[in-house]
Design goal:
The complex is a heterodimer.
Chain A lengths: L9 H10 L2 H22 L1 H14 L3 H4 L17 H17 L1 H29 L11 E8 L6 E3 L5 H9 L3 E9 L5 E4 L2 E4 L3 E4 L3 H4 L4 E3 L11 E5 H8 L8 E4 L4 E8 L12 E4 H9 L18 E6 L5 H15 L7 E6 L14 H44 L3 H38 L10 H27 L3 H6 L6 H37 L9 E5 L7 H9 L4 E7 L9 E2 L2 E3 L10 E5 L4 H4 L4 E4 L11 E5 H6 L9 E4 L2 E9 L14 E4 L7 E6 L4 H15 L8 E2 H8 L1 H35 L1 H9 L4 H35 L10 H28 L2 H6 L2
Parallel strand pairs in A: 6-11, 8-10, 18-23, 20-22
Antiparallel strand pairs in A: 1-2, 1-12, 1-13, 3-6, 3-12, 4-5, 4-9, 7-10, 8-11, 9-10, 14-24, 14-25, 15-24, 16-18, 17-21, 19-22, 20-23, 21-22
Helix pairs in contact in A: 1-3, 2-3, 5-13, 6-12, 6-13, 6-14, 6-22, 12-14, 12-16, 12-22, 13-14, 16-22, 16-24, 16-25, 22-25, 24-25
Chain B lengths: L7 H13 L5 H12 L5 H14 L2 E8 L7 E7 L1 H19 L12
Antiparallel strand pairs in B: 1-2
Classes of the chains: A alpha+beta, B alpha+beta.
């Protein structure tokens, strides 16, 4: 049997045929095929094919591509690299830009805006992604968290118990080291030589904070940062605040209760992209001493498994199984506190802390992804503009190209010529974009709440800027260059070139893509802003207008006098107090019991101590039962919210037995559900209890107009009792607004970015419309002479574009619908997506397109036909 | 000496062209050189060397006969020009004269 005829790889052959100079091709290809046949015999088909590829790639070198033998024609040197030729490329490119000022302007401005905004967004994205990755050991550091509770009240805590860190280090070999951080509420005022500063970013911590993380001590002993329990480590900036330029180490700070601390170390300021930040650090051993010393119930730092207040970070061995470590930690916990059966441990990687929620689901990463996509879309729109305009206008240049070809230009030379033209235009745009970037950065930082800086020493910034510009350049220059250099001279000179269908339809596809993106962005903007409007205006279940609040400190001891005094002041409408902030309730407990509670069931509920006039003060509605009266018996009375009643499955709750902590009492009322957290969360169970000792926060309702007076009176009263402390208060409206700060920022940025995307698309459309009108000048002239009305001419010109925009809308609506449903899922309370939102977005896009196109169309339609017909 | 510089690899290729006497083309040269020198030589290197040699005027080429395994394509057959032959000879003479002036010729490795 004759052996099967094995062919060498077709693609490799094509590459060779395309690349190698024709006069060499025959013998080279012959040699290659002969060698291939020989290799098939020797090493088999597969490896021979592989070798063939290698051989062909070996021929991809300039010396094999040069057209004629140097010995035959010694006057022709490689034209691509000839300096005269290069100069010529730049000269023609510049002339072309200068000649078509209108199109150059549209192209450059579109690209400049696109590049500047694209880079801005990508800088933001890069900053977000860089969070917590600067530690050398960041990939082996994990935060220890707990799941607690059962059923619908199951929740995650990012702080855990103190002893688990020690147990983990001793009993699990995977854990190399552990760092705990506990918030400091004991020492708030620090004094040095008559300077008193209120510090609220102070933490108690393990010394390992400075060795596990890359928080380097500039001064002090990294092995022993705290020399005793009364040592303190400050950041550089904090130290400057107290000591100016003096050497801070060894200086003594006095805290509010006259405890003194000696500065034992200075740590470099925390990077902006660190999730862990603080100003002052105290040894955690002091915290334990304050907490447990003289404690009679036998609890200490090594056995107290009930205080979940320590942020704990574990440094693990490489390749540790996180899940099995979590199980081991749970076993340790249950061994020490067997009744915590509902508790499980989990670990979150340090670099994930910023962009993912504590339970590992997506958090900020969604915004990062959304913004990256927007950046790419804006860049794509800018590229499309360029491609469309230059290919459309290429038809006008077909004659130039043909002349060049006839005179002897090779395709590769033309290709390079157009590439140089694009590069020149791009360099201009890139330079302008960098300038724009520089100018916009402060404004952008303000809008996005970032502190980005164009630090040109940072290679990552260059990486982003460079990649963006090169990527955009490549995406938008290659196609037009190929197209332009491909014209066949004879056809082009005869004027037949414009009929090529494929290019025009490619352009149409690009316009559709551009407008589909615009419609999606418009619809997105619309829905995001509607949702933000919705959460801000949704009925909260209480009235927070004109109310400001603050923690009373020592004023609390004289509350009744203070209240009586304040009520007599102008501007004060009402006064009440409570244990926490109603806009965002903090503390929760699962230490409760009621009739019908099942074995092993836990209901986590938010607890707030309130005064008897709290409910009327905030206009809350009691669904059933009665309010507290202020009687002694009220300490055993509870008011639940509707959600708590539902979660506990209580029917007729009034008068039922309920235990909170050690208080065995009864339910006397049910308050209508109210929002005490962000709208992203469902309303959770909450309980009001009456305990005057816990009522640390005062709420003052002003009449609105005379708010200034009310604040001044409150401040006077504050000074009377808390002379040392600065008076800090906040209006509930502001606290509420702050809850949605990130959403507001996202919404605002989204709006701005989509407007820019639309603006760039319009620039492109404007250019295309102008071009169409220009090409059809004579046609319009003839039509008008024959009696066409202005309206019909406008219709004629606008029709094509409107069709494209309509197609874009049809494509965009489902995509936008899908994307926005995903975004809305994040909110527990959200608007429904309605069809009219898309209708408005579509109409808006259509209107913008129409406006853009009609300007040119009307101009063309109004032109005097005599002129346009005489023009040639 | 005022002759064109010839690289070591070019010299081998040129010599092999001479050895093959009229039957020298890409594939044959490659195989012959692999066999004789044991180097792993690829087609493109041979062709590049031949191109350089042709530029220098040491070989000339003409198209030969097509064969089936080449897909009906003709070979380019190379022959050494007079200039090439003279260059080879000069190289040889330089080497011989240098070797003859060697006072203590290297002993074979086996005698160590």
């Amino acid at each position: 049997m004759k052996p099967r005829n094995i062919e060498p790889p077709r693609l490799a052959d094509r590459l060779l045929e395309w690349f190698v100079a024709p006069h060499r091709l025959e013998s080279l290809q012959g040699d290659l095929h002969e060698e291939f046949a020989y290799q098939v015999q020797r090493i088999g088909e597969q490896r021979a094919k592989w070798r063939y590829w290698q051989d062909v790639l070996g021929f991809i070198r300039p010396s094999f591509a040069i057209k004629r033998d140097a010995s035959v024609n010694q006057y022709l040197s490689p034209a691509l690299a000839n300096p005269a030729m290069i100069r010529n490329y730049f000269r023609t490119a510049w002339r072309n830009l200068a000649k078509n000022k209108f199109y150059s302007f549209i192209n450059i401005s579109g690209l400049t805006i696109g590049l500047a905004v694209g880079i801005l967004i990508l800088l933001w994205v890069q900053d977000e992604l860089s969070f917590d990755r600067f530690h050398t050991q960041s990939s082996s550091i994990y935060r220890l968290e707990n799941w607690a509770g059962t059923g619908s009240s199951r929740q995650i805590w990012t702080t855990t118990v103190a002893p688990i860190a020690g147990f983990a280090k001793r009993e699990t070999p995977e854990v190399k080291d552990a760092v705990r951080l506990a918030g400091n509420y004991a020492y708030t005022l620090f004094k040095y030589k008559g300077k008193t500063i209120n510090e609220n970013k102070t933490f108690f911590t393990d010394p390992a904070l400075f060795s596990v993380f890359d928080f380097k001590l500039i001064q002090g002993n990294p092995a022993k940062p705290f020399s005793d329990d009364h040592s303190i480590v400050l950041t550089e900036t904090t130290a400057k605040r107290y000591f100016g330029n003096e050497n801070p180490v060894g200086k003594v700070l006095a805290a509010n209760d006259n405890t003194t601390f000696t500065v034992s170390g200075i740590v470099r300021d925390f990077p902006k992209n660190s999730s862990i930040k603080g100003d002052m650090f105290l040894p955690i051993s002091l915290f334990f001493r304050n907490l447990y010393e003289g404690n009679k119930d036998g609890k200490n730092k090594d056995n107290d498994f009930s205080q979940f207040r320590y942020e704990t970070y574990l440094l693990l061995q490489p390749n540790t199984s996180v899940a099995s470590l979590a199980t081991k930690l749970r076993t340790i916990h249950l061994r020490n506190k067997p009744d915590d059966t509902d508790l499980t441990y989990l670990l979150q990687a340090l670099p994930d802390m910023h962009l993912y929620k504590a339970d590992g689901t997506e958090g900020g990463i969604e915004t990062v992804r959304m913004f990256s996509i927007i950046a790419l879309l804006i860049l794509a729109i800018a590229c499309i503009n360029y491609v469309n305009l230059s290919t459309a206008r290429s038809l006008l240049r077909s004659k130039e190209v043909s002349m060049r070809k006839i005179v002897g230009a090779a395709r590769s030379q033309l290709f390079v010529q157009f590439l140089v033209e694009t590069t020149l235009l791009f360099s201009l745009a890139a330079a302008l974009a960098l300038g724009l970037l520089y100018a916009l950065l402060p404004l952008y930082n303000q809008l996005s709440g970032k502190e980005l800086a164009l630090n040109f020493g940072d290679y990552q910034i260059w990486q982003i800027i460079g990649l963006t510009i090169i990527g955009t350049l490549a995406a938008s220059s290659i196609y037009p260059a190929i197209l332009l250099s491909s014209f066949e001279p004879l056809k082009a000179l005869k004027g037949k070139v414009s009929a090529r269908l494929s290019e025009a339809s490619f352009r149409k596809v690009l316009v559709v893509v551009q407008f589909a993106v615009s419609v999606i962005l418009i619809a997105g903007t619309f829905i995001i802003n509607n949702q933000l409007q919705y959460i801000r205006s949704k009925e909260l279940g209480y009235d927070k207008t004109h109310v400001f609040a603050f923690f009373m400190r020592d004023m609390g001891k004289h509350y009744d006098a203070v209240k009586a005094d304040l009520l007599n002041q102008p501007g004060v409408a009402a006064v009440t107090r409570a244990g926490g902030n109603i806009v965002q309730l903090g503390g929760q407990t699962g230490d409760n019991e009621w009739d019908g509670k099942e074995q092993g069931e836990t209901m986590m509920m938010h607890t707030v101590a309130i005064d008897k006039d709290f409910i009327p003060f905030f206009n809350m509605k009691l669904q059933h039962g009665a309010n507290f009266t202020g009687a002694v018996a009220d300490s055993l009375h509870f008011i639940l919210n509707e959600t708590a009643v539902k979660a506990a499955r209580l029917e007729n709750p009034i008068g039922k037995r309920f235990r909170l902590w050690k208080h065995n009492g009864t339910i006397i009322g049910v308050v209508k559900d109210f929002h005490f957290a962000s709208m992203k969360q469902k309303i959770e169970p909450a309980i009001f209890y009456y305990e005057p000792r816990d009522l640390g926060a005062i709420y003052i309702k002003t009449t609105g107009k005379e708010a200034e007076h009310a604040i001044a009176s409150a401040q006077k009263s504050w000074k009377q009792y808390n002379a040392d402390f600065p008076f800090e208060f906040s209006f509930l409206d502001d606290v509420f607004t702050n809850l949605y700060k990130t959403e507001q920022q996202t919404g605002l940025l989204f709006t701005i970015f989509s407007s820019i995307a639309i603006l760039i698309s319009c620039l492109g459309l404007f250019g295309l419309a102008a071009y169409t009108a220009q090409v059809r000048t004579r046609e319009i002239g003839v039509r008008k002479v024959l009696g066409a009305s202005v309206t019909s001419v406008i219709q004629l010109l606008a029709k094509d574009f409107i069709q494209l925009v309509l197609i874009a809308i049809v494509i965009a609506v489902p995509l936008a619908w899908w994307a926005m449903s995903v975004w809305l899922e994040d909110f527990a309370y959200r608007i429904d997506i309605e069809w009219w939102m898309f209708a408005i977005a579509g109409l808006l896009a259509l209107a913008i397109a129409l406006l853009t196109v009609s300007f040119q169309s009307i101009k063309a339609a109004l032109m005097n036909p005599v002129r346009s017909l005489r023009s040639e | 000496m005022k002759r064109t510089y010839l690289g070591e690899f070019e010299e081998i290729v040129l010599l092999t062209v001479a050895v093959l006497e009229g039957q020298a083309y890409g594939v044959a040269l490659t195989h012959e050189i692999i066999e004789q020198t044991g180097r792993s030589v690829r087609l493109n290197q041979i062709h590049a060397a031949l191109q350089r040699l042709e530029d220098k005027g040491m070989v000339k080429s003409e198209m030969g006969e097509p064969t089936a395994e080449r897909g009906g394509r003709r070979k380019r057959l190379f022959t050494v020009t007079a200039y090439g032959r003279r260059t080879l000879q000069e190289i040889q003479e330089v080497r011989v004269s240098l070797w003859s002036r060697l006072v203590n010729p290297f002993k074979p490795v086996t005698s160590l």
